[in-house]
Amino acid sequence: MLKRFTFLGVLLATLALIAAACGDDDDGGGSGGETLKEVQDRGTIVVGVKDSQPGFGNLEPDGTFSGQDVEFARALAAAIFGDAGDVEFVVASAADRFDLLASGEIDVLIRTTTWTSSRDVDLNSQFVATTFYDGQGITVRADSAIQSVTDLQGATICVTSGTTTELNLEVRLSELGIAHTALSFEGDPEVLAAFIAGRCDAWTGDKGNLAGQRASFPADAGGPDSVRILPDTLSKEPLGPVVRDGDTEWFDVVQWVVFGTMLADEFGITSANVAQMAANPPNSDVARLLGVSFDGGAVFNFGASLGLSPTFMQDVIGQVGNYDEIYQRTIAQVGLARAGSLNASWLEGGLIYAPPVR
Fold it and tell me: pLDDT band at residue 331, thresholds of 50, 70 and 90?
């Protein structure tokens, strides 16, 4: 009997220790758990972005940042502070982006980052809703004899190191039995310089990136018409914001701000009519998203459940716009039409789809 009680005591003590450890995790021990409060106390959100990709994340000559990723960062600031300008941008390279996130130097990474299993599971990170569905492509000179991936036999191909692009290139061309030489560089500026200098026959990257680089291809190197993107797509590249693992409250905020812009697009709520929609919502779906009453009913306080203002989406839409407004202002400008693409609304056969607010 004594042995039984001794064993029971040890078991209960062990369970207590496990419960305590789990409790620490739930409180956000380590690097996660308190990001929303830290951001609110600081008064700005710090976002890791790219600085060399027109349409997504680009540093303009006047020192401002532009692109779809930048607009989603501004949307977060509008949701949290009511002011889309309360955001600080940190340039995150392909090599250091996950280190910046894990160390807490940035609150969220929004930098054309592909959602993969290893990144999701092994890097203390968590991907939120996909903001752009991309795929890897190949750029060549307009006068090149290369017309498809199968023509790359013996070619030298420029690629950015530390990216899924680098691995995809090796795997896909090996599967096709295409011998090639991969020439790796740290970032887009280095790849561009090597391509212009003729050090490589082709340049591989996400098609969104290649379109942006083509749109801004230097005039003294031939301009946009001097290069073309092959029709082949080598991979799936779902791109979107990334937060630290285990920080559920912050994850929910980032995720639902993104979803909110998609729902606004679906409902026809724009920066031009959001005030009118809030004053006289046409249906309960619109009312719930905008945090107002419909037909005299109770307000569904969606914002409160996220730790935000009840009308946070009015600020997001009013200052930044819905998903389509963001897309047309950024990605469409580098020649990537939304209509007919995977990034069309689900109502038009695309993959941009958000769960309901209810």
Answer: very high
For residue 28, give Cα distances in angstroms to 24, 46, 318: 7, 19, 33
The two three-digit tokens of residue 274, written as one number: 């959001």
- Residue in 140, 137, 175 with CA at minimum distance from that of residue 156: 140
- Report the C-alpha gap between 149 and 91 in whole angstroms: 32
Environment class of residue 18 by beta-carbon count within 10 Å: exposed (0-12), middle (13-18) or buried (19+)? exposed
State how far the Cα of 152 lies from the Cα of 55, in Å rounded to an integer: 28
Closest C-alpha among 231, 270, 246 to residue 125: 246
Residue 315 parent element (H or E): helix 312-319
Q: What is the pLDDT of residues 174-210, one digit of tens each?
A: 999 999 999 999 889 999 999 999 999 999 999 999 9
Query: What's the CATH number of domain 136-235, 3.40.190.10, 3.40.50.720, 3.30.930.10, 3.40.50.11270?
Result: 3.40.190.10
Determine the CATH number of domain 35-132. 3.40.190.10
3-class DSSP assignment, residue 139: strand
